[in-house]
C-alpha cells in the first residue's frame, strides 16, 4: 500500500469515514465531497463515487488515476479524466458485486482481475465479510472496493470490516 490521495463523492453515506478509518496510519489522505467540484482541486489516485452521488455537471474537472463507480453510472466514466474505471453493483458485468447476503455476512465477489494502485493484482475470488444488519450493501461494496484498490490485501478485509467504527450504508 502506498501514500494515496482518495476522493469520495458521496451524499453522507459513510464511505469516506469507513475508508479513512480503515486506512488510518497508512499515509492515505481521504477527502469527501458532495459535488465533483469539491474534489477537483488536486489530482487523485482514486475517486470513489457513491451510489447516491448527484450533480454530474463538472465531473470532467476531476482528474484521477482510477475511478470506482456504480455500474449504473457507467456513462459517467467517459466524462471523468481517469486512467482506469472499476464498477461495483448488482450486475454480473460489475467488477465488484456480492454473491450472497445473509444476516451479518456479505460475500463480496471480485468478478475479474483488479489492478490496485500498488501491490499485486487481486485475482478473481469471493471474500466473506462481516456486514452490519440493515445496512445498504452498495456503499459497503464501494468502501471494500476502495480498500482493495488502495492495495489492502484481500485477506485483511474481514479484519478491517469488522474493526472499523464507521460502517457505510
Layout: helices, strands, pairs:
Blueprint lengths: L4 E5 L5 H9 L5 E5 L10 E6 L13 E8 L3 H6 L1 E8 L7 E7 L2 E6 L14 E6 L6 H13 L7 H7 L6
Parallel strand pairs: 1-2, 1-3, 3-4, 4-5
Antiparallel strand pairs: 6-7, 7-8
Helix pairs in contact: 1-3
List keywords for this structure.
UDP-N-acetylmuramoyl-L-alanine:D-glutamate ligase, 5-stranded parallel sheet, globular, 3-stranded antiparallel sheet, alpha/beta, 169 residues, single chain
What report would you give on this structure?
The chain is an alpha/beta fold. It has one domain: UDP-N-acetylmuramoyl-L-alanine:D-glutamate ligase, CATH 3.40.1190. 21% of the residues lie in helices and 30% in strands. The strands form 2 sheets. The protein has a 5-stranded parallel sheet. Strands 6-7-8 form a 3-stranded antiparallel sheet. Helix 1 runs parallel beside helix 3 (137-149). The longest helix is centred in the C-terminal third of the chain and has 13 residues, at 137-149. It is globular, with a radius of gyration of 14 Å. 44% of the residues are buried. The model has no long low-confidence stretch (mean pLDDT 88).
Kindly report the oligomeric state of this protein: single chain
- Determine the CATH superfamily: Mur-like, catalytic domain
Q: Give the second-level CATH assignment, the architecture.
A: 3-Layer(aba) Sandwich
Strand content: 25-35%
Mind summarizing the main beta sheet? 5 strands, parallel
Tally the structural domains.
1
Widest beta sheet: strand line-up:
2-1-3-4-5
Mean pLDDT: 88
Shape: globular
- CATH topology, what is it called? UDP-N-acetylmuramoyl-L-alanine:D-glutamate ligase
The H-and-E topology, N to C, reads as: EHEEEHEEEEHH
Q: What is the CATH level 1 assignment?
A: Alpha Beta
Structural class: alpha/beta
Number of strands: 8
**Count, helices:** 4
